[in-house]
């Protein structure tokens, strides 16, 4: 009986250890409440998809398109569902070396994210991190 219980406890501990996910993974809302992004992991990198928009349709009632994108071939794709965070690597509570795409302007910026509990500081910048802007996103349960 002791061997069975010990085996069960070891199995449970192993499953729990492997089931843990990275704390950044989940759903986040921007400060204005206009958009929500789901952050997920592909391989050893982190990505984020714009899964919800407060106003997903344009004035004609059609889904908003990525009309500001400098690549004409991408201007017909829907904004909702866009992968706007790409290729982040983890370094402690910081996720760096990634890019963030702003569909409102069609611009892509270097980006660094810092996790602080249920808050996520998103810093988009050009060149060096000092030349940028930070937004704080909140976790959505």
TrEMBL record:
InterPro entries xref list: DUF2147
Signal peptide: 1-19
Name of one Pfam family that matches: DUF2147
Residues in DUF2147 domain copies: 26-139
Keyword Hydrolase among record annotations: no
Gene3D superfamilies from the UniProt entry: 2.40.128.520
This protein's UniProt keywords: Signal
Protein name: Uncharacterized protein DUF2147
Native source organism of the sequence: Sphingobacterium detergens
């Amino acid at each position: 009986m002791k061997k069975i219980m010990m085996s069960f406890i070891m199995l449970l501990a192993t499953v729990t250890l492997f089931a843990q996910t990275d704390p950044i993974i989940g759903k986040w809302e921007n400060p204005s409440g206009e958009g929500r992004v789901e952050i997920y992991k592909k391989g050893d990198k982190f990505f984020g998809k714009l899964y919800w928009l407060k106003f997903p349709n344009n004035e004609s009632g059609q889904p908003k398109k990525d009309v500001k994108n400098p690549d004409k071939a991408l201007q017909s794709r829907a904004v909702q569902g866009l992968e706007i965070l790409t290729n982040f690597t983890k370094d402690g509570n910081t996720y760096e070396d990634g890019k963030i795409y702003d569909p409102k302007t069609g611009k892509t910026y270097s980006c660094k994210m810092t996790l602080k509990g249920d808050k996520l500081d998103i810093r988009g910048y050009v060149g060096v991190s000092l030349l940028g802007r930070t937004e704080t996103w909140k976790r959505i349960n």
